[in-house]
Amino acid sequence: MAKTLRTSGDYTVKAGAGYDSGSGTNTIRLDARYVRIPGDLTVEGTQTVIDSQTLSVEDQFIEVNRNNSTAGTEDSGILFNQGSSTNQILYYDADQSEFVVGSTTHNATVSAITNITPGNIRIAEPAQSDHAATKNYVDSTVSGGGFSIGFRGDDSAVVGVTAGNSVLITGGTNLSTAATEPDTVTITLDPDLTDITSITSTASNSNLTLTANGTGSVVINEILTFDSNQGSDPSAGSVTKLYAKTPSGGGTGVFFINSSVSSGTADELISKKKATALAIALG
Q1: Are 253 and 245 in contact (CB under 8 A)?
Q2: What's the DSSP call for residue 264?
Q3: What distance in Å separates the CA atoms of residue 74 and residue 66, rounded to the nearest whole number?
Q4: Best CA proximity match to 104, nearest among 93, 116, 90
Q5: Which pLDDT does position 179 carry in this prediction?
Q6: Nearest-angstrom CA–CA distance, 107 and 94
Q7: What pLDDT is recorded for position 254?
Q8: Residues in the chain with pLDDT < 70?
Q9: Structure confidence at residue 148 (pLDDT)
Q10: How high is the pLDDT of residue 124?
Q11: Is 208 exposed, middle or buried (0-12, 13-18, 19+ CB in 10 A)?
Q12: String of b and e for 217-252 (b: at least 16 CB within 10 Å)?
């Protein structure tokens, strides 16, 4: 037979001494197949245990750490009991402002996570740009050459290189790099370069300068070849310019020009044969 207990005010059920402070030893048991509470349920104790095999929650969001009133001060998350001294946890680390997943020796009564061993998360291969990348995706992209990287110190469109970091360019032992703020990447050559077959400047009408240190010299151990003849003489300057042109009276085809020599008029180096013939002719 169904029964209804109706009251016009608050209704309290008390069981045993100490009920007001929550320290009583008696139990109120509702022994029924179903217990339905149409209104709100508030549990004011410090621990709520739900001993069920399946928990079904209709709410769209579950709030944890409800009474926290100070931003960025308390860790919170979900702990997974593994039946041993080590549990698994997914939580928000307030000190680091980041989410962490891993294992810990803490249990659910802890207020701050002080020991954590980061764990792995298995995800699907990324299908769009804002998906997390798997290791397989990164490995395949890098080894397959499916991307390009630009380096600049303060440009958000490329990879930023901050002070104290280095960019390694592989392919030999001749190059090393270092970054300085705000936007300079310095490439340093090893003292002795090997397997260099060509040096080309693409800057329009700019010089390519080889400079020795201090009193040192630029040394050419083998043959120096002028790959093409100049069609005309270059302009004279305060330094000597050496170049190749169609051989003339000197018989060498190697010319020089300097504003301090012959009033800046180009002249040809004379060959030994021509010099000998000239000496005989002049007596």
Answers
A1: yes
A2: G
A3: 11
A4: 116
A5: 67
A6: 18
A7: 96
A8: 17-24, 144-177, 179-185
A9: 59
A10: 95
A11: exposed
A12: eeeeeeeeeeeeeeeebeebeeeebebebeeeebbb
Residue 111 CA to chain centroid, in angstroms? 33
Question: φ and ψ at 21, to 5 degrees?
Answer: -100, 0
The secondary element (H helix, E strand) that includes residue 274 is helix 272-282
Closest CA to 163 of 187, 183, 143: 183
Of 54, 98, 57, 47, nearest to 75 by C-alpha is 98
According to DSSP, the residues that pair with 174 across neighbouring strands are none
- pLDDT value for 144: 65
How many other CB atoms are found less than 10 A from the CB of residue 163? Answer: 11
**Looking only at Cα atoms, what is the longest distance across the chain?**
149
Asked if 91 and 78 count as a contact pair (C-beta separation under 8 A), the reply is yes
What's the pLDDT at 174?
A: 65
Separation of alpha carbons 262 and 4, rounded Å:
126
DSSP assignment of 145-165: T-----EESS-TTSEE--TT-
